[in-house]
Amino acid sequence: MRFDVITLFAELFAPFLELGVTRRAFESGQVEVQFFNPRDFAEGNYRRVDDRPFGGGPGMVMMAEPLAKTLAHIRSLRNDNAPVVLFSPVGKPLNHAAVQHWADSTGAILVCGRYEGLDQRFIDAHVDVQVSLGDFVLSGGEIAAIALLDAVARLQPGVLTDPHSHAFDSFNAELDGLLDCSHYTRPEEWNGQAVPGALMSGNHAQIERWRRDQSLLLTAAKRPDLLVAARAAGKLDARDEVVLAGPKTNLL
Ligand code: SAH
User: C-alpha angle with apex 17: 141 to 11, nearest 5 degrees?
Assistant: First the structure.
């Protein structure tokens, strides 16, 4: 798959593409990422990409024309009808289902805003979907684009050493959509706290039961909405319901 990113600050992406487990996906081209700077498509000596807002007020607005020219250039390089994704606080909040959608896709054209945002006419003419990272305002869309690319790369086959490990991550609706259980590593006792006994039992079935219970109870306590969805999707069995109806004492 290929993601073409329209950004004034491609440098911000480099460390995220070069480090960590996801590096494999980017280096192999499994997830190909190309950058395009609207400044390269802007007119005049100053190559302006922004201007003052009509109607007055603070800040600057990204001009439609350099963005449209950048997009036309990208379209000339890709022989598909890739959707244009704009990162924006007005977009739909990013979640696992959306990440899975992009992970299974052939890619997209990602637009990172800066300043007060983009001239609305570019959005109306070219943007297919708007994506938000949450109900807060970033100074640019790059962090949101990096978040999307990282999460998409993580889901590619062969990126995580254990191919099944993301199946157990939080929010994975193919499994159950619940939160992940808590994790422990050495030493067995730290700061006066022992690792839960079930994990030390060596009994695989007992360990799996403990993890399932933790996942259920944690989700019930922190994200009851996910539990409701899992129940509606038929992902909870009779034993799960007994655990959920019982005392919540085991919850860490
Ligand atoms: N005036 C705008 C904020 C502009 S912030 C408003 O109040 O809605 C500049 C750019 O940062 C935006 O164009 C967008 O690309 C990016 N951005 C800011 N907050 C974001 C968020 N929560 N999710 C995704 N992108 C965001």
Answer: 55
Of ligand 1's listed atoms, the one at least distance from the Cα of 62 is 13
Atom of ligand 1 nearest to the CA of 115: 9
List the residue whose alpha carbon is closest to atom 1 of ligand 1.
116
Mean pLDDT in each 10-residue stretch from start to end of the chain (252 residues)?
98 96 95 98 96 97 98 96 98 97 98 98 98 98 98 93 78 89 96 97 96 96 96 97 85 52
CA distances from 89 to 100, 131, 137, 139 (A): 21, 7, 6, 11
Q: Which domains does the chain have, with CATH numbers?
A: 2-153 (3.40.1280.10), 167-245 (1.10.1270.20)
Is residue 154 part of the annotated active site? The answer reads: yes
169 a catalytic residue: yes
Pairing of strands 61-62, 50-51: antiparallel
HSE-up (13 A, CA, CB side) for residue 207: 9
pTM of structure: 0.95
Tell the residue nearest (CA) to atom 22 of ligand 1: 89
Catalytic residue (choose from 53, 83, 89, 196): 89
